[in-house]
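Posted in: Structural Biology > Protein-Ligand Complexes

Title: Requesting predicted complex, shikimate-3-phosphate in pocket

I'd be grateful if someone could produce the C-alpha cells for the following input. Sequence and ligand are given below.
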Amino acid sequence: MSVKTICPAEGLKGEINIPGDKSISHRSIMLGSIALGTTEITHFLEGADCLSTIDCFRKMGVTIEKKPGRILVRGKGLRGLTAPTDTLNVGNSGTTTRLMSGILSGQNFPSVMSGDESLNSRPMKRIITPLNSMGAHITSLHDNGCAPLKVEPGVLHGIHYQSPVASAQVKSAVLLAGLYADGETSVTEPALSRNHTELMLQSFGADVTAIMHTDGTATAQVNPCEELFGQQICVPGDISSAAYFIAAALLVPGSELLVKNVGTNFTRAGFLEVCKAMGADITLLNQSYEGGEGRADILVRSSHLKATTIEGDLIPALIDEIPIIAVMASQAEGTTVIKDAAELKVKETNRIDTTTSNLKAMGGNITPTDDGMIIEGGTPLSGAHIQSFLDHRIAMAFSIAGLIAKGETTIEESQCVDVSYPEFYATLEECQK
Ligand code: S3P
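-- Reply #1 --
Done. Output follows.
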C-alpha cells in the first residue's frame, strides 16, 4: 500500500501527453473481440480497468497481442467467443461488468463475473432488469442485485427500454445485447450520456441511429447484425484524466501548461464548459476528428475562478470530474452548487461522501446534499491526510488539492490511480520541473 506525499507547487509548465480514454479503450477491446478480422488499437490505456477487460476476453478465446505502441485484437466474430473455464475477474471496473453483461447475454455458454469489494457492491439491477426483459438469464449470485453475476444462455428479443438513469453503461449493455436480438432494440435515457458505444458500433459496421428529442431525452437504436468488422482505432486522450492537470494549471499561480491530445467528444466535455463558466483561461488548439471522436490540445493558464451552478443535462457530461470540480470550486469566488448528481453515490465510492470528507479535512467549506454538494469558494486549504478509499478519482482530485494547500498532504493507498492513470504521479512531477 503506497502513501504519496504532495507538496505545494510553484507553477506548472511545459507540455504533457494524456493517456488514452478509458471508456473508448474498453469498447475497442470488446468490439474488436466480437468482430471479424483484426482490430488495431493505438494509444490504448493500459490502466488496470482496461487490462481487466483484456483478461476477460482472453479467457473467452480471443487472442489479444501487445506490440510496442499498439494492441492487436484477433476478433472471433459475433458468435465466436468460447466458454471461459473460470470466473471472469472484472476487478474494479463497472464498465467491464456492465457492457460485458450485454455481450455475454447473447452467448450460448454460461459465465460468471466477479470483481473487487467495491465492484461487488455496486448496483447491477440497472442492467439485469433490461437485459432479462430481452430474454437474458442474469442472476445476482448473492441475490443482492450486485456481482458476482451469472449469465446463462437465453434467446434475445428486441425491446424499447426507457432507462430511469442517464448511464452510458446501461445504454451500452442493452445496445450490445441488441446485436444478438431478433429485432430492433432501443434505449431512451433522460439525458444524453457518453455516446462512444454508438459511434464505435457504427464504425464497426452496425446499424445504429441516435436521436436527440426536444425535451432533452435521447434515444439510441440498434438493429441485429450478422457480423461486425475489425477496425483501426486511435484512442484520444482521456478528458477525465486531463481534467486533473487542467485544474492544477488553473489553480497553481504562474502556470502555463499545454495538455495535449485530449478527447473533446461533446458528451464528455462538460468539464470544459464548467471551466469556461468559471472564467478559466483555456484555449483549444489543433482540433481534429477521427471515428466521430474529437480531440484537441488545450493550453491552460492560471486563472481567477468564479463560482457556478452545475445541474441537469450537463451532469452526465462531467460526472467523473465532479471531485476535481469541487476542489476548483473551493478556490473560486462565490458559492458553487452541484445538483442532479445522485449517480455520484454509486461510483467506485460514494463520491458525495468521499469528496466531502476529504475537502473538509483540508479546511474546505462543503455541504453534501442528496444529489450533489454546495461549496463555498475562496477557502485556503491546508495539507491533510487524505483517504483515497481506493477510488482513483478521489486520489487524483486531492493530490491536485495538495498542490495549493499550505503544508504537506499525504494520499493513502495512492496506487489506486493505476485504475485509469498509471503515469499520474510521474506526469505531476514532470510538469513541476
Ligand atoms: C462509463 C460511464 C459512466 C462513467 C464511468 C465510465 C463508460 O458511468 O462514470 O466511469 O465507460 O460507459 P455510468 O454509465 O454509470 O454513468
